[in-house]
């Protein structure tokens, strides 16, 4: 943990740099090293081929990011983290947002129940 999952409509694939977006959002999260463990971070994008937006009459598009975190961070830390992350997403899509119909969103999901995980990647960063 944390995991960032970005869903985007297929009609954006040719208009934006998804690998570049992944690097930017990953870097944004890692800039909060006090609350984001590098060895636990997973960032991925999922292209959506089947979707319908609004009434379906336009070539609308959307990008929705879900940040999943384990518990234990303060409300202030989560707000700063999400504000920075959403600013990064908006900046990446700023030019495209001015040219086409596009909805951007970010949600935070904080686990309240225990999670089950096994990860030896953390050890590499503790050396």
TrEMBL record:
It comes from the Bacteria. This is 5-carboxymethyl-2-hydroxymuconate Delta-isomerase. One of its GO terms (molecular function) is 5-carboxymethyl-2-hydroxymuconate delta-isomerase activity. InterPro entries: 5-COMe_2-OHmuconate_Isoase, Tautomerase/MIF_sf. Pfam families: CHMI. Keywords: Isomerase.
């Amino acid at each position: 943990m944390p995991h960032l999952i970005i869903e985007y409509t297929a009609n954006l694939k040719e208009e934006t740099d998804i690998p570049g977006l992944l690097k930017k959002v990953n870097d944004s999260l890692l800039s909060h090293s006090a609350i984001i463990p590098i060895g636990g971070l997973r960032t991925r994008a999922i292209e959506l081929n089947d979707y319908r937006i609004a009434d379906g009459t336009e070539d609308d598009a959307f990008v929705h990011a879900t940040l999943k975190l384990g518990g234990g961070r303060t409300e202030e830390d989560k707000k700063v983290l999400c504000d920075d992350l959403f600013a990064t997403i908006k900046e990446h899509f700023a030019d495209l947002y001015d040219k086409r119909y596009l909805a951007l969103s970010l949600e935070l999901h904080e686990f309240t129940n225990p999670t089950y995980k096994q990860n030896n990647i953390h050890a590499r960063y503790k050396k």
